[in-house]
Amino acid sequence: MVNIKITVLKTLDPKEMFGEEFPFKEPAAICPYFQEGQEMIVESLKRPEDFDCTWAWHDIYEHLRFLYFGGVYAPVDPNVAVTCCSDGKRPVIFKLERLTAD
Question: Exposure check for the chain: N or C terminus, fewer CB within 10 A?
Fold first, then answer.
């Protein structure tokens, strides 16, 4: 059985992306579901209980599945992928690591 560790690398503040001129009716806050450095383990491609955002789960699932079934994004580090959710107001960047039994 393959497990995959999810690490939250970065939660982006909308001000980092848009400055003070936020292009929407109301400003958004940093994603309330994740904190930088937070780690979760995915077992058998099941969403961890502490992964609270369905939107982000849907966005990263295809990358999780690719790693789970042996896919390689970069030969330099074949067990790692970096991806993000598609929330354009307050994206979160995730590192996915296939855990291998050494």
Answer: C
Top-confidence residue, 92 or 88: 92
Decide: pTM greater than 0.85: yes
Instruction: Summarize pLDDT for 63-81 with one digit per residue, the tens.
Output: 999 999 999 998 899 999 9
Q: How many residues would you count in the chain?
A: 102
Q: Which token pair is 12? A: 């982006």
Cα-trace Rg, the chain:
15
Q: In Å, what is the CA distance from 73 to each residue of 62, 69, 76? A: 12, 12, 9
Question: How many Å separate Cα 57 from the centre of its chain?
Answer: 8
Phi-psi region of 101 (alpha: psi -120 to 50; beta: other; left: phi over 0): beta
**Under 8 Å CB-to-CB from 51, ≥6 apart: which residues?**
6, 40, 57
In degrees, to the nearest 5, what angle opens at C-alpha 79 toward C-alphas 44 and 91? 80
User: Cα–chain-centroid distance for residue 77?
Assistant: 17
Q: Which two tokens stand for residue 65?
A: 């599945």
